[in-house]
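Q: Hi! First time asking for a complex rather than a single chain. Here are the components, and I think there are three in total. Is that enough to go on?
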Amino acid sequence: MSVSDVVRLTDAKLKEFVTEVERLSGQKVSQCYQCGKCSAGCPMAFAMDIDPARIMRLIQLGQREDVLRSRTIWICAACQTCTTRCPQEVEIAHVMDVLRSMALKAGYTEAEREITEALSQFVENIERRGRVFEPELAIRLNIALGRPFKDFGKGIKLFMRGKLPMLPERVRGLKELRGIWEMVRKLELSEGERHGGEGTKHS
Amino acid sequence: MPRIGVFVCHCGVNIAATVDVERVRDELAKHPGVAYSVDYRYMCSDPGQNIIKEAIKEHRLTGVVVAACSPSMHEVTFRSACASAGLNPYLCEMANIREHCSWVHQDREEATKKAIELIRMVVERVKRNEELFPIHIDVTKRALVIGGGIAGIQAALDIADAGYEVVLVEREPSIGGHMAQLSETFPTLDCSQCILTPKMVQVRQHPRIKLLTYSVVEEVSGYVGNFVVTIRKKARSVREDLCTGCGICTQRCPARRDGIPSEFERGLATRPAIYIPFPQAVPNVPVIDREHCRYFLTGRCRVCEQVCPAKAIDYEQQDELITENVGAIVVATGYELISPSIYGEYGGGRFKDVIDGLQFERLLSASGPTGGRLVRPSDGKEVKVVAFIACVGSRDRAKGIPYCSKICCMYIAKHALLFKHRVHDGEAYVFYMDIRAGGKGYDEFVRRAIEEEGACYIRGRVSRIYESNGKLIVCGMDTLSGKLVEVEADLVVLATAMRPSDGFDELARKLRLTYDEHGFFSEAHPKLRPVETNTAGVFLAGACQAPKDIPESVAQASAAAAKVLSLFGMPRIEREPTIAEVNEMTCTGCFDCERVCPYNAIERKEIKDRRGNIIKVVASVNPGLCEGCGACAGTCRNKSITLKGFNDEQVFAQLVSASV
Amino acid sequence: MEAKAQSTADAHPEDAERKLEFAYYPGCSLSGTAVEYGISTKALCNHLGIKLEEIPDWICCGATPAHAIRTLFPLALGARNLALAAKLDKPLLTVCAACFNRLKWTAYELKHNREAREKISQLPGLLDGQTVERLYELQILHLLTVLRELYGIERLSERVRYPLKGLRVACYYGCLLVRPPKVMQFDDPENPRVMDELISAVGAEVVDWAFKTECCGASLALSRSDLVAERVHRILSDAKSRGANIICVACPLCHVNLDVYQIDANAKFGYEHDMPIAYFTQLIGIALGIPAQELGLEKHMVDPMKVLKNALAQKQT
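A: Yes, that's all I need. Here is the structure of the assembled complex.
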């Protein structure tokens, strides 16, 4: 531990991070009493650097860097087990969603580059094609990650069984949809810069 | 001619910092009907009260207005002072210039003007006050205690020892409650039965305690000092006066092979259809469970009747309705544990080797289903590894139980300790969130479990438990070290949440009690009146009011008994005279008042002519039940009900003064 | 297995009288890696007289990646699909667990979250003329619910021609069918039984096991197949230890992970699991007498045919 590891609790930036997470997720972070039930039931906790309960604690302590640079938020499989079992009704899986988009906005993509890339490519595929064109996704991903022949054997077998289509499916109105996706992106970006507000509170 | 005295309190700086008390005093001195106006720093102090007393005599005051704090603070104080000076206490009122004025405003000028107005309003009212005298009610000096667990037993003994008769009603066949099911109690590790049974026997033998077991309260009517209670003594099918408690019938009952789950053993063992719940039961008289008895189901058997040497079996026995007149009631109906069915992640009750705390007590008990041997309910194999899970239900907002059940941290430590005593090479793991050990010797007890007995405490909730290869896999997390943990256990004990006993809603209805969202009965004030309820004459003791352990239950039971004794200690009860009164001349008998009265205080009274014919039926207020809420007065269509101390003249004078 | 599954449909008793016609949402993988799921679904529904009208121009529901890294986009995708379905004026039916989850989530958000409704209303042309209310009033059903409650278990078992003798099935539900319970309202989230009941009704022996709803690793297969291998190994091991000889699924991604990535699990742990993974539509289809070729059973990586042979070799009863 170095001097910089000591957390100065009165630092205003700490509370800013808490407010930001609460606003974007609609969750009251102080509800978490670190019982650890989420971590105990998380199927991916074995591979995480910071378990989910500790992530919630670090958010409470305003530790933006630790949280957004963690591998945890990418290893999370979004299985919703934590949300289901939390005794304080904190939607932890939703908080993870919010942390991922915050991490992307901050440009933190190196913790689990493969996962980040896979997720981004999937979404881009939807925007471009309307329906996911799996072969294109797999190939583009492998190239982007510098492993062009990963799962090549599987790919051949799948193709032989007719499980890899040659052409993407056509969706009518795709051009208009792409226009709407532009708007959506713009709205998402502007929301990230907004300060204050109630977040996604349920009414 | 009214001669009102106005006494303006500074309340230190609470009032005086915001309100110009001297100006107030001077303004009020000018008000018509005010004969004397003075201010003082602390009106409620002895010197302050003396000022009032002397002023009453010196200035021949006909009424007193104390401008100070809220009446809920000091109305009693000032009324007593007036009474001791010879002025009827109901000619004394308070004007609240603190909570309603100085504490909620900052502008000195506005606050002062408001204070003056508030006091003038009360002066106008007091001019129309009439002398009122307390109502005296006779008291039946007998008590009813509902519930025969440790709290009910203690309350009954305390009241009876003071010389009064007590009727103790218990719905199970024996008294003793859950304490009778425990093996040892924390923190002393006394054998539970050993310390309980002397008290149970005392109850049985006490000349002034009438013990009614296997009985329930059917109906309650009346009011403080004068309750009429109907008790249903359910038919045991055994003559209590003839039975010797030999127990032969229970040994020979053929239904003992029918798999009837024993309530006392919490389902870990079976019992016959004619049974005594446990060996030390009081009374030691069996009961026939007619829902499982072969004779009652099929018409064939009657073995118990044949083998009973005392000829005490009586299949024709009926429920008996008993009426008791009592002056006070103590409710001590205790608790139950929630079912683990809401915890699907822990098996939802499907796994035989996942049990609750009371079941573990039965396993530990020498008189329990396994004779005190720690074996698995599923296959009878010895338990070597046990996991104790705290907070199963408690502190779980998602399951609707946000409160802490208070006793679990302690009994888990006890369980871990006792387990290690019995199974020297056994391993005990406790999964906890926090340790709540606030009582005397409690924290030391928990440390003993950890430091001397080697119980392994893991801080973190368990996410799930599943069965695998005959073991129970407990998936947990140690948040202190940040490590995921897993235990392969032979047995898992869940510390399930405490909830009020079944039937709390029905009993509340009969006694006119309120309860919170979880069913725990409401005390009159959480801090200062923990054993009284909002129904005069009904008191609370034990876990029916909130989760608590044995020492607290005993203490609360004695407290409730003390309240009962103070009720009985006076020859008659005095009640506040500010109750409703019906003008029988103008009452039309519509009984809208009866419909709105929350205390069932409106009765029907027949008005007869000289020949005895009924002319009309009018409303009549029962002074023992009326709490002076005024709902009837507000509802009455033709203003036939007035609330003494709050009649129209008084109230309108106050309002008119404000608008002038 | 004594206790019955909890209701898996919103209470719409009048549906029982209605003809079984649905707006069908297949989802992207049913034309790709889960093509046999789509084939067997169509074959089964056809056989039972359940009419599926595919929603024209449906788009991807977003699955996990959309909500994992975007905030408004997943809602827009769901809203678009619900709007297109609403036009057909029939309840929506899907078989993909992820699609089911996302569509229900969209409806839930739109119903309970004012800000979500406002945002969606701001996107011109997205809803293709539908109102937001119409979107969350739409009934969204999984085929499991339709079979159990609308078609009926008794009726289904009456149509069984080849009871699945010799099959010891571990029914695997995965995550997204049942969680989060507030949104999905689908069976018991800790111990669901709807699939067990259906498989039982067609004559198979259903095995009680501990990993019914344990996550398979989901979309991490694309990027971190090593983690998926870990999860797959645990799931397959538990099923095997209970005596299961086949696992039944209702989710395309679970199928891919357990079937296609089974070799990764084998390699990582040095163990041949050899556990076939079938879709519930395929197993029920076999039991009802639909030929195996029409159910896409030859498309799996781990061959299910040897286990199914016993069932298939039976004479017509």
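A: The first helix of chain A runs from residue 12 to 25. Let me know if you'd like any chain examined more closely.
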